Automatic annotation (TrEMBL):
This is ABC transporter permease subunit. The chain crosses the membrane at residues 33-53, 73-94, 106-128, 134-153, 197-220, 226-246. PROSITE patterns: ABC_TM1. Belongs to the binding-protein-dependent transport system permease family. Keywords: Membrane, Transmembrane, Transmembrane helix, Transport. GO terms for biological process: glycine betaine transport; transmembrane transport. PANTHER family: GLYCINE BETAINE/L-PROLINE TRANSPORT SYSTEM PERMEASE PROTEIN PROW (PTHR30177), OSMOPROTECTANT IMPORT PERMEASE PROTEIN OSMW (PTHR30177:SF4). CDD domains: TM_PBP2.
């Protein structure tokens, strides 16, 4: 068999593997979305047929659940956007020239936010900055910096240097090479870090109910304070379903942002 035929067979085999992976990924996305919808539907059915007290019925009304879910989503996404705005430029900077030597210590410092218990960061923010949404979002953002920053550095460092040299040899500027070669190739790794941070912050946002930041954590707080197991369980289940939904949304964005063939 000629070398051209061997190369053609390898290309076809690679395309078949990529197509199989794509189909598997689409199937997972559909299944994950279906689970989220079923869980939220089951919660609505439960609160509509269960024998609830007046306080429970008011806390678990469809309108209140929708409002708290939206509030929880806004808290998580706002913190994630803050993390991306800080971590992506910083991660790019730490892969340029002489700044590389600072990458390890800066990532180590960023790791302190995640190494510390989340409740500790939130309590410190509440003590020194007050309660409410803004201090809580700041604490969430500090907690979520590490996965994004580390993945930006890892993704850019993982780009084949020969591709960068080839781009520069074709006359691309350093910025053009970064935006048109390095960032697209590093996108899958970077998006994985963003998705990880989003899911972490969505779960941690449950603590917002204890510091006046709102979200579904308010149901957990109410359930604990008043000894209402139904409110506590519904709140915790809704948080888990919302985290799964956010993970689904992040996977969709990740697939859309990833260049074909990667």
């Amino acid at each position: 068999m000629s070398s051209a035929a061997v190369v053609a067979d390898e290309v076809l085999e690679k395309e078949a593997v990529l197509e199989a992976d794509a189909q598997s990924g689409r199937g997972r996305l559909v299944g994950q979305l279906a689970v989220c919808v079923l869980v939220f539907a089951a919660l609505l059915v439960y609160v509509s047929v269960a024998d609830l007290s007046q306080v429970e019925a008011r806390s678990l009304s469809a309108g209140n659940l929708a409002s708290l879910s939206w509030e929880h989503l806004v808290l998580s996404v706002t913190a994630a956007l803050a993390v991306v705005v800080v971590s992506v430029p910083l991660g790019v900077l730490l892969t340029r020239g002489g700044m590389r030597r600072f990458a390890t210590p800066i990532i180590a410092v960023a790791g302190f936010g995640q190494a510390a218990p989340a409740i500790g960061l939130i309590v410190l923010a509440a003590l020194y900055l007050g309660t409410g949404k803004a201090p809580f979002i700041l604490a969430l953002a500090i907690y979520g910096v590490l996965p994004v920053l580390a993945n930006v550095v890892t993704g850019l460092d993982g780009v084949d240097p020969r591709l960068v040299e080839a781009a520069r040899g074709m006359g691309m500027s350093a910025v053009g090479t970064l935006l048109r070669v390095e960032m697209p190739l590093a996108t899958p790794v970077i998006m994985t870090g963003i998705r990880t941070a989003l899911v972490l912050m969505t779960g941690t946002a449950a603590l917002g109910g204890f510091v006046g930041a709102g979200g579904l954590g308010a149901l957990v707080n109410t359930g604990i304070k008043l000894g209402l197991d139904s409110v506590l369980v519904v709140g915790a289940t809704a948080i888990a379903a919302l985290a799964l939904f956010i993970d689904w949304g992040a996977r969709v964005i990740e697939q859309a942002a990833t260049p074909k063939g990667l």
